[in-house]
Design goal:
The complex is a heterotrimer of chains A (315), B (285) and C (359).
Chain A lengths: L4 H15 L1 H28 L16 H8 L1 H34 L3 H16 L2 H11 L7 H7 L8 H4 L1 H26 L3 H9 L4 H12 L1 H17 L2 H6 L12 H10 L8 H25 L14
Helix pairs in contact in A: 2-15, 4-5, 4-9, 4-12, 5-9, 9-12, 10-11, 12-15, 14-15
Chain B lengths: L2 H33 L3 E2 L2 E2 L9 H4 L15 H32 L5 H12 L7 H10 L6 H25 L3 H10 L3 H9 L4 H17 L2 H6 L8 H9 L8 H21 L1 H9 L6
Antiparallel strand pairs in B: 1-2
Helix pairs in contact in B: 1-12, 3-6, 3-9, 4-6, 6-9, 7-8, 9-13, 11-12
Chain C lengths: L3 E10 L2 E11 L4 E5 L6 H9 L6 E6 L2 E2 L10 E4 L11 H11 L4 H14 L15 H14 L4 E5 L7 H18 L2 E6 L2 H7 L2 E6 L2 E6 L1 H6 L4 H6 L6 E10 L2 E5 L4 E3 L5 H4 L7 E6 L4 E17 L3 E7 L4 E7 L9 E6 L5 E4 L8
Parallel strand pairs in C: 3-8, 3-9, 6-7, 7-8
Antiparallel strand pairs in C: 1-2, 1-4, 4-5, 9-10, 11-12, 11-14, 12-13, 14-19, 15-16, 15-18, 16-17
Helix pairs in contact in C: 2-3, 2-4, 3-4
The chains are: A mainly alpha (315), B mainly alpha (285), C alpha+beta (359).
The complex binds adenosine-5'-triphosphate and magnesium ion.
């Protein structure tokens, strides 16, 4: 019997398609979750922001009313200022600054001791937020036997209530000690991957340790630095869990309130029980848009595309 | 030995120790609080194991009341555990399936799905809280642990898929090709050759999912109304807020330490996975 | 055992033509080497035969069966990968047993066969180890054992010796060849090392940039290269290529270069008579076919490379250096004049533009 290649191919490409049906079984559940509980909420946030929805869940459309209201909301300006202060201070002192210090210091001392220090810095990160916040709340209590007051009494200072006196200090410390680990890990990995020969060459050229750090190591971790800065800016901008737990925006009215927490408060914990889903969603939409833009920027700038190499098996 | 480098080195050690001291002190404090009568700074005034007696019944009275009790500690523990385990397993299964398909197959829409997951993995899901509340309410999943599970899984998945895809990408193509030549089907090769070689990835995602579920606070706070569904995070939150929050710190510390047990276990024995998760990106702060 | 036929076989990756219109027949039991420089499409060809890649065009036949759409598992080929591709999570025993397990063979048969093939390859002692606990040479044997144990119809090897040290490579070369002759398995062997191909293969297919250059026995490739690429690729000391224009004086053909003239033996005149006078050509002659110490040409000794048994003498002929292979004890001095000649029946002439051989 003579063979007809053409016929053979037609029938087979059909069976091959069926054969790959299991691919959908692999992908669909994840896609379903992501679409319904991730993508649709992105759109919903935007839509709810165009209504004055409350706990009755009615869609009372008011167009851009909420956004106009933001412009007239005198608290919004204060909170915007708070947010910028909070993000940049925490970022500068801890998420990037402290992270850089810890990773440089721990890679220049005995390796074992260095990694013990890094482990300790990882601890706040994996501690449940409620427990971690509790630790600080206790330490900052006003009683004389609290940790802070006990420590300052060594220098002859009087006990104070730290949360009431220095709420921002507390907020930044609490967030900073958690936030350091991310940058620390990335920087350490980057520093450790610098070829030993570069350092040796610099030593041969007579560079001191500080000069090596300044002229060899720092320039070589430029990209990780940028990456951590960009990444952590977005996290800080949108996170409010620890502030909620520690000061809940107080003391007083909106002293340490940040944008994301304001949105949360309006929707879920408004004083007097008034629920403003619509206004809260409008505030959140701004964060969502910033989040989306920054996510796309990371994707472009940090060459995530390179992670999308093509598969090699064609069966 | 020259003196100058030695001196420089010890300055570095001292500064490191100083900046790290707050963490060390805070956790020491927690531990001491649970076994001492009273604390002055970090100096205990007498040791006691009384606080740990809550383990016998699991009943803790609400401070300032005489008859009101918090939900039973064991109920809370099992809620938390169930939540964390379901989240962990769902994330492992779904992200390893999707990660595999995205890493190893050509199909229409592949690059769009990849782009989507890569973009979303950096996106802060917490900003969607109001919309998620709306969705859960519409689906009748408000005030149920399942609702929290679903939301957590959906928001964690892009990262999980990304981690798993990284592990799948790391397996040499030669090995999979070799399995096919040796007589496996594509699915057979996945199960017999690929999956056993991404065990580290599975562990990482499992631990990540477990810790993520175990520690979850905001979604529980927002989506759970009934005390019957409380998890540890709510429990500790209740113990530390309000007027009477420092009436019985020993008991609070004990509960917090019980809550920390899995965290401590992973911290001591699974750090390589924790680092892996961290490097893969995302963190709330 | 089967024969393999590749018909107009092509594989494109986007716009890279990894394999371009390849036609090749491999006889039952034959040992064929695919030879070519890095990136010429050798692995791609092998993977198409194994069924991992789908051809963009063309057909693959085993005997007379079209295989294009037969999945790899049904092709009964054994393959040794360049990286060995041992399964890291399996012991050596499980690695070798894997193909048999997939065929659902009884346990005791698997045990027996694995033992047999492992002993044959001298790795019987290593069966409990993990691949990571093996040396390169041992890993390579495990990979061989795994490919052999299923008694494949076709044996595919992708540069199996390239990760071994020189001594082990020579030893394995002989072993592999012997094994192939014993089992008479149709074998396709990929390599970029012409010595390997020349010493082991019955026939060699030389590839360049995805295109087949020549297919023939080692002897044919050595003595009658079809083009300048094959001529330059085959041979342990590369062939001399001397540029010039083809001229005719007094009925003789000569190659006229910058500062030199070479006479082309009369035996070739028939072939050359159709070529236009003045055409740019390249004269090729292997160093081992340059006789020194006497002859009609002369040049200056430029440099001498001793190789032990032999030495390579570089001779400056004015604008061009040619290499000659001489016995190691032959006395020459750098800078001195030297006479030489070419073995008449061993010279080649290639068209400069197309690279095709006239002679
Ligand atoms: N999966 C792929 N996707 C895109 N291009 C590919 C792919 N595989 C191979 N190529 C390209 O096809 C060409 C041939 O590659 P191949 O691996 O067959 O070369 P090779 O002869 O085996 O080389 P080497 O000796 O280096 O192994 C190369 O240019 C290579 O870059
Ligand atoms: Mg190759």
């Amino acid at each position: 019997m003579r063979f007809s290649p053409k016929k053979f191919f037609v029938s087979n490409s059909f069976t091959r398609k069926l054969h790959k049906g299991y691919l959908y079984v692999f992908l669909l559940p994840s896609l379903g979750f992501i679409v319904v509980f991730f993508l649709i909420p992105v759109i919903l946030t935007f839509l709810i922001g165009l209504t004055k929805m409350d706990y009755s869940f009615r869609w009372d459309w008011i167009g851009l009313g909420n956004y106009i209201y933001i412009l007239r909301d005198k608290w919004a300006y204060k909170i915007l200022g708070n947010t910028l202060f909070y993000v940049f201070t925490t970022l500068a002192f801890f998420n990037v600054g402290m992270a850089l210090f810890i990773s440089i210091a721990t890679t220049h001392i005995n390796d074992k001791i260095g990694s013990i220090f890094r482990s300790i810095w990882l601890l706040p990160r994996i501690t449940p937020s409620t427990v971690y916040a509790l630790l600080w709340l206790w330490a900052a209590r006003g009683e004389a036997n609290s940790l802070f007051n006990w420590l300052t009494s060594i220098f002859g200072l009087h006990p104070i209530d730290w949360k009431l006196t220095y709420p921002w200090l507390l907020v930044i410390l609490v967030n900073g000690f958690v936030g350091t680990s991310f940058g620390m890990i990335i920087f350490t990995a980057a520093l450790k991957s610098i070829p030993e020969d570069y350092i040796r060459a610099a030593k041969v050229d007579g560079a001191s340790t500080l000069q090596i750090i300044r002229y060899v190591e720092l320039p070589l971790i430029k990209w990780p630095l940028l990456f951590v800065t960009a990444y952590q800016t977005l996290s800080l901008l949108t996170s409010y869990e620890y502030i909620l737990l520690v000061t809940d925006g107080g003391p007083g009215l909106y002293t340490t309130e940040v944008w994301a927490l304001y949105s949360y408060h309006l929707a879920f914990a408004q004083y007097g029980g008034i629920v403003k889903f619509g206004y809260g969603a409008a505030l959140a939409t701004i964060l969502v848009i910033i989040g989306l833009i920054m996510s796309v920027i990371y994707w472009k700038v940090f060459r995530f595309r390179e992670l999308m190499v093509e598969p090699k098996i064609e069966v | 030995m020259r003196i100058v480098p030695l001196l420089k080195n010890s300055i570095v050690y001292i500064i490191l120790l100083l900046v790290t001291l707050p963490i060390i002190l805070l956790y020491t404090l927690l531990f001491l609080q649970s076994i001492s009568v009273n604390l002055n700074g970090v100096i205990p005034n007498g040791f006691t194991l009384d606080h740990w007696s809550i383990l016998s019944t699991g009943n803790i009275r609400v401070p300032g009341t005489t008859t009101q009790y918090y939900p039973n500690l064991y109920l809370v523990a099992s809620n938390t555990f169930i939540l964390a385990v379901i989240i962990a397993f769902t994330e492992v299964v779904l992200s390893s399936l999707a990660g595999y398909a995205l890493s190893r197959y050509k199909f229409a829409g592949r690059s769009q799905i990849l782009t989507l997951t890569l973009i979303l993995h950096a996106f802060p899901g917490i900003t969607l809280l109001i919309a998620l509340f709306y969705v859960l309410n519409a689906l009748g999943l408000y005030n149920s642990l399942i609702g929290v599970v679903i939301v957590k899984v959906a928001l964690d998945l892009p990262l999980g898929i990304w981690i798993m895809k990284g592990f799948f990408d790391g397996i040499p193509w030669d090995i999979e090709m070799s399995a096919l030549v040796d007589g496996c089907s594509r699915l057979g090769a996945w199960w017999r050759v690929i999956m056993p070689n991404v065990r580290n990835g599975l562990m990482a995602v499992l631990i990540f999912g477990f810790l993520s579920g175990w520690s979850e606070f905001i979604y529980v706070l927002t989506f759970i109304a009934s005390q019957d569904y409380w998890t540890f995070s709510m429990f500790v939150y209740a113990l530390t807020t309000g007027e009477y929050s420092y009436i019985n710190p020993g008991i609070t510390a004990t509960v917090a330490i019980i809550y920390m047990i899995p965290v401590i276990i992973f911290f001591l024995f699974a750090q390589k996975y924790l680092l892996r998760i961290q490097i893969a990106g995302k963190s709330t702060v | 055992m089967v024969s393999v036929k590749l018909v107009n076989l092509s594989k494109y990756f986007h716009n890279v033509k990894a394999v371009d219109n390849l036609n090749l027949e491999i006889k039952d039991g034959e040992f064929v080497a695919l030879l070519g420089p890095s990136g010429c499409g050798k692995t791609t060809t092998l993977l198409m035969i194994a069924g991992i890649y789908k051809p963009t065009n063309g057909y693959i036949y085993f005997d007379n069966r079209l295989m294009n759409d037969v999945p790899p598992k049904d092709r009964n080929v054994g393959m040794v990968f360049q990286s060995y591709a041992l399964y890291p999570h399996m012991s050596v025993f499980d690695n070798i047993a894997f193909p048999l397990k997939l065929k659902k063979r009884p346990k005791d048969e698997i045990r027996r066969k694995v033992k047999e093939v492992a002993d044959l390859l001298g790795i019987g002692e290593l069966l409990d180890r993990k691949p990571s606990q093996l040396s390169g040479g041992q890993q390579q044997r495990v990979a061989l054992a795994r490919a052999l144990v299923k008694e494949p119809d076709i044996f595919l090897m992708d540069e199996p010796l390239s990760n071994l040290d020189a001594k082990l490579r020579i030893q394995m070369r002989a072993e592999l060849k012997k094994m192939q002759k014993t089992f008479k398995i149709t074998t396709i062997y990929v390599t970029h090392d012409q010595v390997e191909a020349m010493t082991m293969a019955d026939r060699i297919a030389v590839l360049n940039k995805g295109v087949l250059q020549q297919y023939g026995s080692p002897d044919e490739l050595y003595n009658r290269p079809k083009n300048i690429f094959v001529a330059g690729f085959i041979g342990s000391v590369p062939m001399n290529f001397i540029r010039g224009a083809l001229k005719r004086t007094n009925g003789d053909y000569i190659l006229e270069g910058l500062d030199y003239l070479f006479k082309i033996p009369r035996t070739y005149h028939d072939v050359l008579k159709d070529i236009e006078v003045g055409t740019e050509v390249i004269l090729g002659v292997r160093p081992e076919h340059v006789d020194i110490g006497f002859g009609e040409y002369s040049g200056k000794v430029y440099v001498v490379e001793p190789l032990g048994r032999d030495q390579i003498i570089h001779i400056d002929i004015g604008g061009e250096i040619i290499r000659a292979l001489a016995p190691g004890d032959y006395k020459v001095e750098e800078g001195k004049d030297i006479k030489f000649s070419f073995k008449e029946d061993k010279i080649h002439i290639f068209d400069k533009k197309s690279g095709e051989a006239y002679i």
